[in-house]
Amino acid sequence: MLLLTFMVICLVNHVNAQDVYAPYRQNWLKKAEQYKPVLKETVKQPFGIVKLEKDASAFQGWKTVSAGGMDQLYNKPFNKGTSGIVVDFGEHMTGYCTFTLKTLRSDMDAPLRLKLTFGEVPAELATPFDPYPGGLSRAWLQDETVTVSVLPATITIPRRLASRYVKIEWLGSSSNFEFGFSDIQFKATTSVSITPPALAAGTPQIIKDIDRVGSNTLKECMQTVYEDGPKRDRRLWIGDLYLESLANQYSFKNDGLTKRCLYLLAGLANDDGILNANAFEEPVPHAQKSRLLDYCYLFNVALKEYVTATGDVETGKDLWPVAKKQLDIAKMYAGADGMMDYQKAEREWWVFFDWKDGLDKQIPLQGITIYALNQTYALAKLLGKENEVAEIPAITKKLKEAAHKNLYDKKTGVFVSGTNKQVSYGGQAWMVLSGVATKAEAQKALKTLPSLPDAVRPGAPYMFHYYVAALIESGLKAEAKEAVTTYWGGMVKKGADTFWEVYDPADEFKSPYNFFPVNSYCHAWSCTPVYFIRKYPEIFQQ
Amino acid sequence: MLLLTFMVICLVNHVNAQDVYAPYRQNWLKKAEQYKPVLKETVKQPFGIVKLEKDASAFQGWKTVSAGGMDQLYNKPFNKGTSGIVVDFGEHMTGYCTFTLKTLRSDMDAPLRLKLTFGEVPAELATPFDPYPGGLSRAWLQDETVTVSVLPATITIPRRLASRYVKIEWLGSSSNFEFGFSDIQFKATTSVSITPPALAAGTPQIIKDIDRVGSNTLKECMQTVYEDGPKRDRRLWIGDLYLESLANQYSFKNDGLTKRCLYLLAGLANDDGILNANAFEEPVPHAQKSRLLDYCYLFNVALKEYVTATGDVETGKDLWPVAKKQLDIAKMYAGADGMMDYQKAEREWWVFFDWKDGLDKQIPLQGITIYALNQTYALAKLLGKENEVAEIPAITKKLKEAAHKNLYDKKTGVFVSGTNKQVSYGGQAWMVLSGVATKAEAQKALKTLPSLPDAVRPGAPYMFHYYVAALIESGLKAEAKEAVTTYWGGMVKKGADTFWEVYDPADEFKSPYNFFPVNSYCHAWSCTPVYFIRKYPEIFQQ
């Protein structure tokens, strides 16, 4: 995810302000560096040549059809006539593209100019980028113009790319000579080094496919941090880290990467102790000043999950001051009536939850606050620190009771949010995960949702995760399997090699950035079926 | 110059064909390498910011006006609003452009994308390049797109550039942050290391200006070979080498470069001994297979001039076999009647002389053949080799007499060419330089030209050189000075920093390549006023 038009409210860090993490910060950053993985590099060869074809039934209206082997490109003259050829590597890759150009006939007597467009999905290659209507930087789009003065030349596109396809366009060369391509390849990188175990023999094919695509998504996003997307944003966000680390626990088991990311986020927190929502590694590790309320909470949950999975109590204790500090947020906005002042919070923070216009944040905020308090208390217990947060159970109880009293609509059996009494999938999910809903209420609410045409549906796979988690939490196993199969399976059926940042089955062109090609089509927060499928084999693997 | 649509007729070099230069070739190439100059590098700072303004009275309709110092660019936010800013370095440079980008506000959370266009003249920056109508490779045009993922960044455009101006356009960046430029600079290169002596005190200003612009042109073209143009073609052509080496003798005196180029051309000649018209240095020295008749002759003339100027008889003797071999061309096409079979020659060779559609090549070919024979004989005498070419005086005499008899129109006092009896400036020039015309006839012919509206005028500065040389040869000193002052002075008055490849006072958009921005505006063959002004001070420096 990326902040788009939302103006982040930054509490100004006065020069003289005390750094609450002063005793720890350097050590945290050192540990983050220490656990920085060495990337595994694999040279990928192209699969063949494909043609882009318009097809109303294909995802975003474009499909590829095979147009022969690489011999259709290699060592044949490349010119105006052959311009637009698309090389298919057969899989999503993150890394560096290298190719060789050679003179095939006569003498090169002028430079040549090529445009290479790297695409994760076919429509990305078929949609003109300019004039660019998108809300994010045009530079995220992966088209590069190359001028080559001398042949033979082996050229590496300097920027790291994320793509399956490469479209090559001829922009100019001398008509006195002919040149051709050879050895186009990708040096693909990931910090994943193992293959997860196979699913149970009887697992339905669609679940196997979802697991495969989800694993690929996660693998592609696991670089020197858990990136949110290798094409776009390419950085560590707490929300993505949380979901990636869950999926990682059940697949690639790269605990070192989770540890690194937790330390990095801690080391780059604000002086007042509040985490920034995301961090960059280059040119030196630094955070984007971005106070995203729900992500601060999720750091605690991710840390608790990490300690639970690894038994690495030392790291838990190291980072405990950060987790404890994030609870200030709950205290800051919890009213005497036990209700979170979500309106004040929204004025002062970025309160995200989902890419969904109009989503009312009252219930999600109330729910995640309770959830984070519970999870942090569980963490405290793992670390023997519960005396430091002895007040949590009482606060949680108060928030839960108030939530149930104020947000549950007994008549309809759903939880309602805000002044307009909005019913949303996300809202029910957080009321379930927080334990506000009893199991019976949870089942009722979740089962009622499909019958409510106005219920606000999840906008992105990120929120869909919490919805599925709530279904499982409520014991709605068949519904959980159905949700995963329908939603992520829908992407698989539409040809996804990796799961997408944004997927609305009803609108394939949906983009939070006003231009679907700038969407990320390999996005970390969409990888969580891997977690569900492998954590709950009794639900999914039969 | 560059071969455009002309298909070069290459005599096939059979694998078993004997290399007539086998005993010498490796030694020649070794010597070429040995005399490869180390380029002098100078870091150039920009002069300021300029605005492009449409002005019908300016060269090609565009001028620049000052828009302030570099503080208008440096460390100010660069964005959509400031896009299109033009940096002026105040002089033509050949080399590498480097600049630094820094974050000015907030955190860079997306790559940025810039387009940089490098221009020798203002109109080059104001004319859209696409859709590209030109006949040469689009890639000659110096616009480069750059994607920058991390700041701060110091970026060097990889290709060598030739420009005075840099237009910087914003193509995209995140609206969440601001970035700015600093330290834009050029590492300019040349193999020139001295400043030529000042002209005589009383030299008219316009002559001083022409000399200055001509010297700059030559300096810019003198890289590791005599290039024809540092922006376009960027290689060693015999015709350009000849004129550059003449100007060099009277200015920068870099004899080593002339020597290198002569050896290089010899070392890259065809196995049958005929020279190729041009050579490239990269990736390894190699010739473009291009048999250009008049340029083969001019190699001999250049070698003779080099030996005369330097006394380097050893090099002359080393390369004598090449010079002798080029005379085969004369023998091949000289008929029993003493007339060159120009039609056959044109079928079998590229016969160039000028960028001028419709120029009849009969007289120029007859003239240059005689001239080359004479010059080669003079070279033979310098080397003590006249016994090897003892037949030259007789051949020359026969060609001269036939020329006079068949091509001189006594009635009009001009020489006429071809079946249509075409009168051209170039034709008269070559009849004068060859000595076919008596001094009186020469003066008559050259003086008559301006009164003939149909006389074919020189198309490019290259042919203008021979016209001026003919005026001087005929003793028409005032006319020579006037021609230089009007023609090259015309470019100076139109703001030339360096002299142009193509200049037709009546058509500023003239282009042999169908698109004036791809013309070279720093072109070697236009530098010869330096030679005239400095060799003939009595004509020009008073």
TrEMBL record, chains A, B:
Q: Where is the Glycosyl hydrolase family 78 alpha-rhamnosidase N-terminal domain?
A: 46-188
According to the entry, every stretch annotated as the Alpha-L-rhamnosidase six-hairpin glycosidase domain falls at 207-534
Instruction: Note the superkingdom of the native organism.
Output: Bacteria
Q: Using the record, list the residue span of the signal peptide; answer none if the entry has no such feature.
A: 1-17
Q: Does the keyword Signal apply?
A: yes
Q: Extract the coiled-coil ranges from the record.
A: none
Q: Which InterPro entries match?
A: 6-hairpin_glycosidase_sf, 6hp_glycosidase-like_sf, Bac_rhamnosid6H, Glyco_hydro_78_N
For biological process, the GO terms are:
carbohydrate metabolic process
Record's keyword terms, sorted: Signal
Q: This chain belongs to which protein, by name?
A: Bacterial alpha-L-rhamnosidase
Tell me what organism the protein belongs to.
Mucilaginibacter corticis
